[in-house]
Please model this.
Amino acid sequence: MSTQHGETITLKPISEMAIYIKNLIPLNIPETYVLKPMFANIASEEHIRDGVIAFRDFMYLFCDRLFSDGHSYAKPPKSPKSMDDYPFIRHITDMLVDIGYHGKLAESGDSLLITELLSCAAPKPRITASSQKECLRFLALCGFVLTGSEVSYPNNLIMLTGLKALSTAYMELRERRWWGDFLRCDYWSLKAEETDVFDVLKDFLHPLTEKVQEFAFHLHQRHISMGMTCIRYMQTGIGFVYSYMKNSRKAITPRDIYASRIWEFNYSMKYGYCLFVRAKRTDKYADIIKQFPLSLQETILKGYGCDRKRNERCQGGCQGIRIPLDESILAISSEIETWLEHEVPGSASK
Model:
């Protein structure tokens, strides 16, 4: 536990980190899709696709081991900067990426030859010697076998091909690297064609119950049909943000879409799955709000924002009005839909 700018930070148990990471992993990865040409020198498309699925299965095992044994490896920092501040997670991600990206895949595909792990290299290694040992011990627990400069994964040899491809995408296609994007088996980055955001949203919401997913899909499709723009964005957790950009006269960037967001689906260590709404037009449909259940009325009328008079870091209130995205939202689903539609410029609230 630590205190930063007046805020007490309590580190989440590593078992909760394991659940968080596992929920990010896509449940269904297609068996066929065309790859970007840049991966042609790694292996055949079929072998890469099979390798990606094998890496997904490895990540399931990784998360299960992290849940049951992670406390023996992931030592908490003395002064955590966030509730998910486990250096072990960053270090083992760096090590996996190093093995995949810099390792030379054997012609048979059953091993990777490693001459150097840059994250561990002198004179200024990103991973200390003691942390390197912990990471290697944990990888061994998950099925990796390191013999001299050779790395293998006897549980499923094709996994190394998937590791190679995903590490290459992570290093060469991402301007901003975050460990979660690698550990969640980001197969979308390998595809030649851009993935429809709705398909990525389905992967994102798969841990939720079927009825909650159906409600979320309905909101997505309804607001896309109203002319809103949706993108996946990482800021406070992982989110899908919805903005109305039709009247913009300049080239629109993801940062612009995020800054103009009206609402979003979000998944974070702090709150779990939530719907956040940055309501700004409530005065235009006050009569509609009065018809909502009292608890929802009170939630909306409280508004959102951070107290800038306090000498503290952002408390997260600026993200919007928070509604848990779980079974409880179904009882007010019609009111939520009405509320969100009245926040869209040019809607029935005019």
In short: The longest helix spans residues 45-69. Residues 2-190 form one domain. The CA atoms of residues 139 and 273 lie 29 Å apart.
